[in-house]
Amino acid sequence: METPAHDDLPTPAQRALDALTVNAEDQVALDTLARTDVLVPVPDDAVDGEGADATTVSLPVLEQPGGDPVVPVFTSEGEMTDLLPFVSRYRLIPLGALASQWPEDDLSLAIDGSSTHALTLTSQGVRTLLAR
């Protein structure tokens, strides 16, 4: 008897993303997402300076079709590879910690941008919903 493959089951972070698309005020989902470690892509041409501050992160900014800037983050390597197959490096950061340091600029956050669980938050949404 074969055991079912669990690779297709959504992770807690993906379930939280799905819940937030239905109810943006779902506190359990927001708390789960804020505690989730996300992968922040590091461009392959970025240089690791010896004097770099380990507490700061350079955010990768992409331009959305409408021209609005967005920072892509991912809940797994697979999700990152689907959207950015040429990026091989990343930093793992708790989403709540990233949100608490979010810039004041009009910069959106896209979580798992190419997946069925994708969620994009405005700059204000990142700071108010996820910074815990």
What does this structure look like?
This protein is of the alpha+beta class and 132 residues long. It has one domain (12-43, 59-130): Trna Endonuclease, Chain: A, domain 1 (3-Layer(aba) Sandwich). It has 5 helices and 6 strands; from the N terminus they run ααβββαβαββα. The strands form 2 sheets. A 4-stranded mixed beta sheet has the order 2-3-5-6. Strands 1-4 form a two-stranded antiparallel sheet. A hairpin with a 7-residue loop joins strand 5 and strand 6 (119-121). Helix 1 (12-22) runs antiparallel to helix 2 (27-35). It is globular. Residues 1-6 have low confidence and may be disordered. It comes from Streptomyces lucensis JCM 4490. Residues 15-127 form the SseB protein N-terminal domain. Pfam families: SseB.
Walk me through the topology.
Blueprint: H1 12-22, H2 27-35, E1 37-42, E2 62-63, E3 69-73, H3 77-83, E4 89-94, H4 95-100, E5 108-111, E6 119-121, H5 123-130
Parallel strand pairs: 3-5
Antiparallel strand pairs: 1-4, 2-3, 5-6
Helix pairs in contact: 1-2
Domain SseB protein N-terminal: 15-127
Protein name: SseB protein N-terminal domain-containing protein
InterPro entries: SseB_N
